[in-house]
Design a protein that fits this description.
The complex is a heterodimer of chains A (118) and B (117). Chain A is an all-beta fold and 118 residues long. In chain A, 0% of the residues lie in helices and 52% in strands. Chain A has strands at residues 3-5, 10-14, 19-21, 24-26, 32-39, 46-52, 59-61, 64-69, 74-79, 88-96, 107-108, 112-117. In chain A, strand 5 (32-39) and strand 6 (46-52) form a beta hairpin. Chain B has 117 residues and is mainly beta. Chain B has strands at 5-7, 10-13, 19-24, 31-37, 44-50, 53-57, 64-68, 74-78, 87-94, 107-108, 112-116. Chain B starts with a strand and ends with a strand. The chains are: A mainly beta (118), B mainly beta (117). Chains A and B meet through strand 6 and strand 11 of A and strand 4, strand 5, strand 9 and strand 10 of B.
Chain lengths: 118, 117
């Protein structure tokens, strides 16, 4: 069985501060995928990144960066110079490789609510 | 390009009733997944449809059933509603994972908020 733990329930930062959202996952599969999604108050989940288990390279996209460490089963997400528009609930998710037709079955963490204060 | 759409936006039902939620996938997508998100929780996978067949199913009872139509749109049906079924129901569409680099990336709709009284 797969499990994703986001220990931080809520985080508040002042605008322009950096913030890191933690994600720890559990799986016995050697091939898997990790995801981050953003959920603004409107409710629609917005895809941010997908990483496969064989690619441990860190990734940077603008103010967003992700640190994947298999040794600690972690996939942390950092927002640099946070902005009010970053306020949302952020979910980390895991899927094992699926050999059939169709798509991934995502296992989500409980999410971290980020509030950026002006 | 229209994204994933869901209807209705909100729904109020009473215990024991039945409900049908609808989802239209993003243009060009052939796979539809359904998730249930209780208040303050992460989404939980219900099931997934591809080529009009249920391909994967999460840990949900048979009261939850679905259908996919030839145009790839999908319905989620819940029978004998319980108070605990109150949640945001999210639909996600994607291309088949075998479709290449973009396969499997799931685009979510805005959800249907179901309240069971």
């Amino acid at each position: 069985a797969q499990k994703v733990t986001q220990a931080q329930t809520e985080i508040s930062v002042v605008e322009k501060e950096d913030v890191t959202l933690d994600c720890v996952y559990e799986t016995r599969d050697t091939t898997y995928y990790l995801f981050w999604y953003k959920q603004p108050p409107s409710g629609e989940l917005v895809f941010l990144i997908r990483r496969n288990s064989f690619d441990e390279q860190n990734e940077i996209s603008g103010r967003y960066s992700w640190n994947f460490q298999k040794s600690t089963s972690s996939f942390n997400f950092t927002i640099t110079a946070s902005q009010v528009v970053d306020s949302a609930v952020y979910f980390c998710a895991l899927s094992v490789a699926y050999s059939g037709a169709g798509s991934y079955q995502l296992t989500f963490g409980k999410g971290t609510k980020l509030s950026v204060i002006p | 390009d229209a994204g994933v759409t869901q209807s209705p936006t909100h729904l109020i039902k009473t215990r024991g009733q039945q409900v049908t939620l609808r989802c239209s996938p993003k243009s060009g997508h052939d796979t539809v997944s359904w998730y249930q998100q209780a208040l303050g929780q992460g989404p939980q996978f219900i099931f997934q449809y591809y080529e009009e067949e249920e391909r994967q199913r999460g840990n949900f009872p048979d009261r939850f059933s679905g259908h996919q139509f030839p145009n790839y749109s999908s319905e989620l049906n819940v029978n004998a509603l319980l108070l605990g079924d109150s949640a945001l129901y999210l639909c996600a569409s994607s291309l088949d994972v075998l479709a290449g680099a973009s396969g499997g990336e799931q685009f979510f709709g805005p959800g249907t908020r179901l309240t069971v009284l």
